[in-house]
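User: Hi! I'm working on a homework problem where we have to compare a predicted structure to a textbook description. Could you give me the structure for the chain below?
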Amino acid sequence: MGHTVTILPSHKGFTVPRVMDSEYCVDAVVNIDSYTANGEVLDATQFGLSSLSAIVITGFNQNAITGGYAASMIAAEVIADGKYSQGNTTFTLNCPAAGNTDNLGDIRLRLWGQI
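Assistant: Happy to help. Predicted C-alpha cells:
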C-alpha cells in the first residue's frame, strides 16, 4: 500500500471538513504511488471524518497513470444494499487492470460524512 491523502483547501483556504446541510463535505486528492493488488484501503479519519455516507470520484491525473487506466475502472466497493463493503468508516479504491506496485497517480474525491 502506497498512498498519501491531501485535503484540498476551500475557497477560504480551510483544509477541514465543511458543513453541508446535516453532513460534512471534504474534497481531497489521493496519490497512489504504489498500488496494492487488492486495492487501496482508505479510512474516514484520513479525510477528517469519523464516518462516511457517500464518496464520488471527481477526477484523476491522466499523465500520472502509468498503465493508461480509465477513471471508470476505479470505484469504492459496495455491497448489495448499496452500503460501502467495509462499513461506514473505511472504503477501498479498486482498479482491476492495475498490477501490484503500479503508480496510479492522483485521484480526486469528494466525500460526505460526519466528523
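For your comparison, note the following. The beta strands are 2-7, 18-20, 23-34, 40-43, 51-60, 75-76, 90-94, 105-114. The domain at 2-114 is CATH 2.60.40 (Immunoglobulin-like). Good luck with the assignment!
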